[in-house]
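Entry 12.
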Amino acid sequence: MAYIAALLAHPAFTDRFQTDLVRPGLRVPITADASLFLEAVKLGREVIWLHCYGERFADPKEGRSSGPPRLPKRESPLIPASGGIPGAPEPLPDAMDYDPAARRLSIGKGFIDNVPQAVWDYEVSGKNVLRQWFSYRKRDRSRPIIGDRRPPSPLDKIQPDHWLDEYTTDLMNLLHVLGRLAKLEPAQADLLQRICAAPLLPASFAEAEAESDDATS
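Predicted 3D structure (tokens):
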């Protein structure tokens, strides 16, 4: 699983195999080089550790502690004294913006500094992660009804009337995780390039192994 995460969970995989990805189903290049395989596994463990907020593949010896991952202090997002996102009686904010020159993420009347452009732009399956996260916590959560989709449930209207402290905690955790994932992408792209340039196991190898297992059983 870690091998797959290292090779597939970054934009370079999508860019390289754009034509193939038109058809459903992911095709994973499996290296025949044991050293490259182990390198991918090591990198993939960190990817999964980040995706799971430290709940999987925690290993202090490898620099992966349990609990929400953190960027180095000089690279960490920070909320200045004047930037706190106000709670009650201020209503929930409806806007989230980014200033690339100041590296500032604004949420309503609050803001977070030292946020890289790569974190603001980070996408998964074509969806911007930060904007998607905020869409479930802003004041107006209505979405246009497209086609025959059912109207939203009245339960969707049950929500806090002000920004919660836990929202800020969740957002800071997310910024740390996205920041670390963005930093891993060049290493993932380089690894994918080297694996694809080296000998790969053909599909016939997997088929032969499966036939061998069937015969043994």
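Annotation: Helices lie at 2-8, 11-16, 34-51, 117-121, 129-135, 165-197, 203-216. The mean pLDDT is 91.
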